[in-house]
Amino acid sequence: MEVEGYDYDEERNILSILTHKFFQEDEMQTLTKSIIDTKFKRLEGFYEKCLDELYINLEETSEAYSMAYNIYRYSIENKIDKIRFSIYVFNKILLMDSPKTIFIPNSFLLRKIDNIVEL
Question: For the sheet containing 93-95, what is the strand order?
Answer without folding.
Answer: 29-31, 93-95, 102-104
